[in-house]
Specification:
single chain; mainly alpha; two-stranded antiparallel sheet; 2 helices; 2 strands
């Protein structure tokens, strides 16, 4: 098949296909090869509550104090008035 710029070549398509095939096959071999066996996870102990886990670790659980209903005023300087207040007339 000829065009105004000359004959079309299938070589770029063949080279790109070969590079893609080599890349995909190497990924499959490296990721799923015989030497890549799953490693068993270490023993994981699960506890139903935090208290059970603390007892197993010989720790003491101290409850947190309840939050007061009214928060005290924040320390630091008070907010200032804006430089240009809104006109409310």
């Amino acid at each position: 098949m000829d065009t105004e710029h000359g004959p079309r070549s299938a070589w770029p398509l063949l080279i790109a296909s070969a590079v893609a095939a080599v890349g995909v096959s190497s990924l499959l071999i490296l990721d799923h090869g015989l030497w890549n066996r799953p490693v068993p996870s270490p023993l994981v102990v699960r506890y139903a509550t935090t208290e059970d886990a603390a007892k197993a670790a010989h720790a003491v659980v101290t409850p947190t104090l309840p939050k007061p209903a009214l928060e005290p005023a924040a320390p630091g300087p008070k907010r200032v008035q804006p430089a240009i207040p809104e006109n409310k007339s």
